[in-house]
Amino acid sequence: MTHLDDPVTQRTNLGYITAAMRRPLLARADEFALAERWRNASDAKALHELVGAYTRLVISVAARFRNYGLPGGDLIQEGNVGLMQAAMRFEPEREVRFSTYATWWIRSAMQDYVLRNWSIVRTGTTAAQKSLFFNLRRLRGKIEQSGENMSDEGRQWIADQLKVAVSDVKDMEIRFAATDRSLNAPLRDTGDDEWQDFMPDAAPNPEDVVIGLRDAQTRSRWLAEAIGDLSPREQRIIRQRRLGDEIVTLGDLGKELGISKERVRQLEQRAISKLRTSIMRRVEDRGDILLEG
User: Taking the complete model, does pTM exceed 0.85, yes or no?
Assistant: First the structure.
């Protein structure tokens, strides 16, 4: 049993809704007076009274989002956050009713919650996509009420209404039709097969791993043998310039060897050329190894 159908949660939510609906609405003058007391005197009691009087507005807006399969109690909590934000930002001197101002904040908070939790896949990242997400069902319902099935013409009409691409409408239809599914969910009512059992494994198979290790060992042997063909000074340059964890600069290496930076560069290039020639004598397929110059 989940918290969606938990009897205790249902009773708690019902009690909260009942209490909220019993609270009287405020007259215009009263809500302005409370807002001014909060804004000018930081009167927390006035803030709580203002917010409490419009909790029923949160419940009303939450009912519009009940078809998205999310817990009603969570929607109401998110709406209350929006209501608090509205109360904190409300400016009485603008002569706009608090209920009108708060509705936008409540709806915005609930929409963000729905978009975050409706699917594990991110939905509605732009304003147009959000509008499509929350209006597609309504507009599709209008088409179906007229006795028509969803067609390309209907999708084009929806796209024109919401100012989005037809491809976006098609993609959102697919999103609505395909709900999230656990990879551990059984594939059939009978049997132990799960959805994850039929997912392709992108990792290399054991044979490829063994071949890769063998090839790496072979290349390492070729390189070690080729380095052995170099002079001691060339070996030192290659090891410190190409094979060390920290690359030694040409200048620092020149000081160690008592030669110029340019001379170190020339010796390094000559050593690399020798390595390439030495390794190629050992390689049957030149695609098996690549040396950078």
Answer: no
